[in-house]
């Protein structure tokens, strides 16, 4: 993502996306998306509703297969869901969904270590101990482990979702609006926690966010999307010199500019 100077060594891309397209019926949700991100770097994706942000993230994690284009993770082409390396990479990616996607029928600790329990990589005793340890990392008490998700506030559920996303120590962490609906204090706390995780574990983080201050100050790189296209990408340090109408309008939250309100769903009934 970061553009090298003429005197600096070239940093190899850990995540490389070239010409990614995805259609749902007649709707073009992704239109030739390109992305470069080095290992351990952080990226914020911004854009209006139905810009294609969540679709891009679901293509990266393998939920959707692109219609064309390539996704290469650390040298492995995982463009298609049936790619040879896709199962291996599925275990290396942690994802927080926008609505957390916690299982109501499971306790908090079972939610956090659902993957390990299902795959048999931990017995239930080990999984519970691991989940309790992770709860401490996201600022929740041990007593939360045996509660149901419905017993938790929205902010607590968000932190459980993050704990689950990092439970397998992923190489890539994908976060779909990790602070959506949270108050500014809790939003800042969660973003600081995400930054700490990325720094301590060397995790490559891609996060969709609607908070322009967080996008500007908490992430090394930024991508601006609209109508399935990337209109600007680069280091956040270069935002003020971008002179890009789409980016400027989004950062200012202005109703005047090239971005217009678009209501409605894709042909499959899902908002992009």
TrEMBL record:
GO molecular function, one term: ATP binding
InterPro entries linked to this entry: AAA+_ATPase, ABC_transporter-like_ATP-bd, ABC_transporter-like_CS, P-loop_NTPase
Keywords, sorted A to Z: ATP-binding, Nucleotide-binding, Transport
SMART domains reported for this sequence: AAA (SM00382)
Classification via Gene3D superfamilies: P-loop containing nucleotide triphosphate hydrolases (3.40.50.300)
Region described as Disordered: 253-272
One Pfam family, short name: ABC_tran
Keyword Nucleotide-binding: yes
Domain ABC transporter: 15-252
Protein name (database record): Organic solvent ABC transporter
Organism: Thalassospira lohafexi
High-level lineage: Bacteria, Pseudomonadati, Pseudomonadota, Alphaproteobacteria, Rhodospirillales
């Amino acid at each position: 993502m970061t553009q090298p100077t003429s005197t600096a060594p070239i940093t190899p891309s850990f995540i490389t996306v070239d010409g990614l397209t995805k259609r749902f019926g007649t709707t073009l949700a992704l239109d030739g998306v390109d992305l470069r991100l080095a290992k351990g770097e952080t990226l914020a994706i911004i854009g209006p509703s139905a810009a294609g942000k969540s679709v891009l993230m679901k293509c990266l994690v393998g939920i959707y297969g692109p219609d064309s284009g390539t996704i290469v993770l650390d040298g492995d082409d995982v463009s298609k869901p049936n790619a040879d390396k896709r199962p291996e990479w599925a275990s290396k990616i942690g994802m927080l969904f926008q609505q957390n996607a916690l299982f109501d029928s499971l306790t908090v600790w079972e939610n956090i270590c659902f993957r390990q329990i299902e795959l048999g990589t931990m017995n239930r005793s080990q999984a519970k101990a691991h989940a309790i340890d992770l709860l401490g990392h996201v600022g929740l008490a041990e007593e939360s482990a045996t509660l149901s998700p419905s017993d938790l506030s929205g902010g607590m559920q968000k932190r459980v979702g993050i704990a689950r996303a990092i439970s397998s120590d992923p190489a890539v962490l994908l976060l779909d609006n990790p602070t959506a609906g949270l108050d500014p204090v809790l939003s800042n706390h969660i973003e600081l926690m995400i930054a700490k995780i990325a720094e301590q574990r060397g995790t490559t983080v891609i996060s969709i966010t609607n908070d322009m201050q967080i996008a500007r100050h908490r992430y090394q790189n930024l991508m601006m999307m609209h109508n399935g296209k990337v209109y600007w990408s680069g280091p956040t340090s270069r935002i003020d010199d971008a002179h890009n109408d789409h980016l400027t309008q989004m950062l200012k939250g202005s109703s005047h500019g090239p971005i217009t309100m678009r209501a409605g769903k894709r042909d499959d009934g899902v908002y992009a």
